[in-house]
Design goal:
heterodimer, A: mainly beta, seven-stranded mixed beta sheet, B: mainly beta, six-stranded mixed beta sheet, four-stranded antiparallel beta sheet, 1 helix
């Protein structure tokens, strides 16, 4: 199993451009989420999904959109990139809402907005 | 949301036990303590988790105090490859069971 796969690994955008960060998992996990990590800090939750067709906001949702049309995929969209969105983005998945199961993380997408 | 406090950095000699402390004094009764580590800004790697009992797996041991306000991650025989940032995390029920990360402890294992 591949686990959680994120693409691309690196991306440079100009201010105002749009792009989609891809996340796919092959573990049939219900829950998926997006975090961002800024220098010297832990991860912060952007958006999450508890199943196909269901999404909700996390701690820092502004400037990002998500959708969940399938169990496997959970893309993160930046509609108009800003320098403040320069960060490393991690996607995670977990098997349902049981807090007694670990989250699996992808390897991250390093985004720079110039 | 419950928050965690960890020392920013620690050193450990190779082959010795590494004991990483964490305070989570505002944790609620149904919230779990998780430990992850991150090597060179790669994706966080799961280590261990627990609710109130001590836990052990092939990677580490987790000791949770009886009042659940603090915990210690123990790497029994640290190797150079254990050099990483270690995050003590509280997993809460809201927002899809989100993980609340703190600043982490940068562990340096030295020969």
């Amino acid at each position: 199993n591949a686990g959680v796969t994120q693409t691309p690994k690196f991306q440079v955008l100009k201010t105002g451009q749009s792009m989609t960060l891809q996340c796919a998992q092959d573990m049939n996990h219900e829950y998926m989420s997006w975090y961002r990590q800024d220098p010297g800090m832990g991860l912060r939750l952007i958006h999450y999904s508890v199943g196909a067709g269901i999404t909700d906001q996390g701690e820092v949702p502004n400037g990002y959109n998500v959708s969940r049309s399938t169990t496997e995929d959970f893309p993160l969209r930046l509609l108009s990139a800003a320098p403040s969105q320069t960060s490393v983005y991690f996607c995670a998945s977990t098997r349902g809402g049981n807090l007694n199961t670990e989250a699996f993380f992808g390897q991250g997408t390093r985004l720079t907005v110039v | 949301d419950a928050k965690t406090t960890q020392p920013p950095s620690m050193d450990c000699a190779e082959g010795r036990a590494a004991n990483l402390p964490c305070n989570h004094s505002t944790i609620s009764g149904n919230e779990y303590v998780y430990w992850y580590r991150q090597i060179h800004s790669q994706g966080p790697q799961y280590i261990i988790h627990g609710l109130k009992n001590n836990e052990t797996n092939e990677m580490a041991s987790l000791i949770i105090t009886e009042d659940r306000k603090s915990s210690t991650l123990i790497l029994p025989h640290a190797t150079l490859r254990d050099t990483a940032v270690y995050y003590c995390i509280v997993r809460v029920r809201n927002q899809g069971g989100k993980l609340i990360f703190g600043q982490g402890t940068e562990l340096s294992v030295k020969p």
